[in-house]
User: Fold this.
Amino acid sequence: MVRKFLKFLYILTVYLVLYIPLIVAIVLSFSNSEISDTWNGFTTKWYSNLFSNSDLLQAAIRSIILATMSACLSTVVGTITAIALHRYKFIGQKVVYSSLSVIMMSPEIVQGISLVVMFIVLGVPLGFTTLLLSHTVFCFPYVTMTVLARLKGFDKQLIEAASDLGATDVDIVRKILIPLIIPAVFAGWLMSFTLSIDDVVISYFVGDKSFEILPLKIYSMVQTGIKPDVNALCAVLFFVTFFAVILSYKLLKIKK
Assistant:
């Protein structure tokens, strides 16, 4: 009984530490005060101001476009990589797998500096293209690991039976593997979209004023102090991200 209580207390403490700052920001986004850390009555005017701010809306649209395109590219590259790692044996397979883990675990600031140095050396101007490529590189390992986990979980006898019946590799991938991994593919897409739309560190290094996205716009706004409309924007982003993660989790639990 004591062990269960301590376990519950530990979990509760972790969740409180994680979510209390978010709850405070969401609550203060409804405060009728010009100061972001003071409650002065209920209002929704900051949300009205938020959705009437053309600069923020333009940055949000750019972020959505970037996140959608990078998620699609990451999903294609990540899914192909996962199928190759699971289905075939080739030279350097372990190196590829280890490299994906290294990318996922390495600090974003390291990735950002490495990518911007590479773009400068190659003479690629910073902007939409560099953001898209960088976000794809950042996100596709997560898709690969998600799809790979799904591939390792189904019965391999399905592929053996298909091969015995004369199915080619293309038929096996198209008619067996793809239908089985669709939930993981969609989950990987949602994960990539979420990672891309709120990335600040990598975007700061490889982005440019010619294509300013929402995270960088928020970063520039808070340099002069956090205003209530920033709290409103954080609340909107939190709920978008939250529902995307929940949907991703539900898709991963689908068995068929």
Q: What stands out?
A: The CA atoms of residues 151 and 177 lie 8 Å apart.
